Amino acid sequence: MIKKFLDKLMGKSTPGTSGGKPHFGKREEVPASVHGINPELVDRRAADVVATLKQAGFEAYIVGGAVRDLLLGLRPKDFDVATNATPEQVKGLFRRAFIIGKRFRIVHVVHGRGREHEVIEVSTFRAYLDNAAAGQVAGNEKTSKAQLSGMQHAVDASGRVLRDNVWGPQDEDATRRDFTVNAMYYDPVSQIVVDYHKGLQDAKKKTLRMIGDPATRYREDPVRIIRAVRFAAKLSGLGFSIEAKTAAPLVQSQLLLAEVPQSRMFDEMLKLLQTGHAIATIEQLRKLGMAKGIYPLLDVAVERADTPFVKAALVDTDRRVNEGKPVAPSFLLACVLWEDVRNGWQARLNQRQHPLPALQEAIDEVFDKRIGDVSGRGKLAADMREIWVMQPRFEKRVGSTPFGMVMQPRFRAGFDFMRLRADVGEVGEALAEWWQDFQTADDERREDLMDQAKEEQKVRQKAQPVVKRVPRAAPAAEPRALPRAEVAEGDANANDGDAEFPSDGGAPKKRRRRRRKPGGAGGGEGAAPAAAGE
Question: Which residues are identified as catalytic?
Answer without folding.
Answer: 78, 80, 178
